[in-house]
Write a structure and sequence with these properties.
Elements lengths: L13 H45 L8 E3 L13 E9 L15 E9 L3
Antiparallel strand pairs: 1-2, 2-3
Length: 118
């Protein structure tokens, strides 16, 4: 029994074509995850610096780099009714990554408020 040539389909190259069509979306997804992960890492570092600065300001110690007191400093370190607010700023260096979204900020600023006397 012989098969008809019309019933036999040639599927060679379909996998390669599907891969070529899906590759841009896979690369965009991978780059997005990398950029978002780096951005969140920088944001977490900035929050940590702001917390360290707020703790130092509440105890009237020298502030770490990239931090500054936003409001009034603690006048008496043992008064728990006063609060000190410290801001930390860190530049975002993700612009060097190709195809980085434009809406990412140039720098991240986080503010932390802590009770004086820590």
């Amino acid at each position: 029994m012989k098969r008809s040539p019309r019933l036999h389909r040639d599927d060679r190259g379909v996998v390669a074509l599907e891969f070529v069509l899906a590759l841009p979306f896979i690369l965009i997804l991978i780059m997005s995850v990398v950029v978002l992960g780096n951005f969140l890492s920088i944001k977490t570092q900035t929050v940590g610096e702001a917390r360290d600065g707020a703790r130092a300001a509440a105890l009237r110690q020298p502030l770490p780099d990239n931090t500054s007191i936003v409001g009034a400093p603690c006048t008496t370190p043992t008064d728990p009714t006063q609060f000190v607010e410290v801001a930390a700023t860190k530049p975002v260096s993700l612009r060097s990554i190709p195809f980085t979204p434009i809406f990412l900020p140039e720098e991240i600023t986080e503010t932390v408020t802590m009770r004086c006397g820590g």
